[in-house]
Write a structure and sequence with these properties.
Protein name: Protein kinase domain-containing protein
Pfam families: PK_Tyr_Ser-Thr
Helix content: 25-40%
InterPro entries: Kinase-like_dom_sf, Prot_kinase_dom, Protein_kinase_ATP_BS, Ser-Thr/Tyr_kinase_cat_dom, Ser/Thr_kinase_AS
Order of helices and strands: EEEEHEEEHEEHHEEEEEHEHEEHHHHH
Keywords: ATP-binding, Kinase, Nucleotide-binding, Serine/threonine-protein kinase, Transferase
Family: Belongs to the protein kinase superfamily.
């Protein structure tokens, strides 16, 4: 099938190398820079889906009609190089319907680009807190579908792929939604591959404050249980429609666990639910889901369930459902919240919105919709 130049570099690569990866059951390949430049209209601002500390993400369409999202990293340094290598390595290993698949990548002397399938419903974040929040597209059934699907993706990473993988950055912006609101966990730049027989390791803290397990945020101790904690926060976010950390009058910070714990103790489950749902939900499922979330965010890692147990409990198939009425969640120390305060004072947060970038959510747009509208106008003319 011949060869072509790899991105901006001069080393020929074999385009016939196809390795199945990702949830979309498609093979990935190496793209040329010219292909991606053309697909994104020269990385036009009109095509930009978002940007953050890592670089920018653009909507694109290949010559064969495939819609793609292209993550174009900023100028290379050792940190960015490592995250790029980790993400490509991990994406090349995983294959699950609830994990965002790798479409390809492009490597050159001063360019690093990763190509994914474009997700028309963007991220869970955009529906809970962003430009789609007022439309209330996420009813209770969709929210549970997203919760269970995301959990199944994590179960695969923790228990089925070898070596096991810890994501380390589970959050609403890293749960992307396809046209049917099927969730795909994305952004593996911080992922850790865990050798067989290793239960945990100590590492430099990565991730997003509010989702970080206490033992990881304070001491850098990372394990699969850290992802379980982050998923518990995500589950509370899905149920309540609240952010993981809220700023109260006077600049005081309150975590979602601090807000929800008194309501759980008092059994006021309906008061926990996102008001936008207007009470349209399954009460039995609500209680079970709150119980799962409370178990996931326990302060002590040993008290948290595994992702296998989480999936079973969410589906109602766990043989002995654990009952929990108290979260006993840890509270971040002031020194950990200090960097978050700096971001409030104007210091940008890197990678705040995951694979689609850390741009302000209300200004994000769906380029595919705009391009489709343009085509309709053109046809009418």
């Amino acid at each position: 099938m011949g060869s072509s130049l790899s991105c901006c570099g001069k080393k020929p690569v074999d385009e016939g190398t196809n390795i199945i990866a990702g949830g979309s059951n498609h093979s990935w390949r190496i793209f040329t820079y010219k292909e991606l430049h053309t697909a994104t209209n020269g990385f036009s601002e009109d095509n930009k889906l978002g940007e953050g500390g890592f670089g920018s993400v653009y909507w694109g369409k290949t010559s064969d009609g495939l819609q793609i999202a292209v993550k174009k990293l900023k100028a290379m340094n050792s940190k960015a190089e490592m995250e790029f290598a980790v993400e490509v390595e991990v994406l090349g290993r995983v294959r699950h319907n609830n994990l965002l698949g790798l479409r390809g990548y492009c490597v050159g002397t001063d360019q690093r680009l990763i190509v994914y399938d474009y997700m028309p419903n963007l991220s869970l974040l955009s529906h809970l807190h962003g430009q789609f929040a007022s439309e209330v597209q996420l009813d209770w059934k969709k929210r549970m579908k997203i919760a269970i699907g995301s959990a199944e993706g994590l179960l695969y990473l923790h228990h089925e792929v070898t070596p096991h993988i810890i994501h380390r950055d589970i959050k609403a912006s890293n749960v992307l939604l396809d046209s049917d609101f099927e969730p795909l966990v994305a952004d593996f730049g911080f992922a850790k591959l865990i050798p067989e027989g290793v239960s945990h390791m100590t590492t430099r803290v990565k991730g997003t404050l509010g989702y970080l397990a206490p033992e990881y945020a304070m001491w850098g101790k990372v394990s699969e249980s850290c992802d379980v904690y982050s998923f518990g926060i995500l589950l509370l976010e899905i149920i309540t429609g609240r952010k993981p950390i809220e700023k109260l009058p006077g600049g005081v910070k309150r975590t979602i666990t601090e807000w929800v714990e008194p309501l759980i103790i008092q059994g006021k489950f309906k008061d926990i639910v996102d008001p936008k749902l207007r009470g349209n939900l399954d009460e039995r499922q609500l209680k079970q889901t709150i119980n799962v979330a409370a178990l996931c965010v326990q302060n002590e890692p040993d008290k948290r369930p595994t992702m296998k147990e989480v999936v079973s409990m969410l589906k109602g198939t766990y043989p002995r459902p654990k009952v929990n009425t108290r979260i006993e969640s840890g509270k971040y120390k002031d020194e950990i919240l200090a960097p978050d305060q700096e971001r409030d004072n104007g210091v940008p947060e890197e990678s705040g919105y995951g694979v689609f970038g850390a741009m302000e959510v209300p200004t994000m747009h769906d380029p595919f919709k705009r391009f489709a509208d343009n085509r309709r106008v053109a046809k009418q003319v």
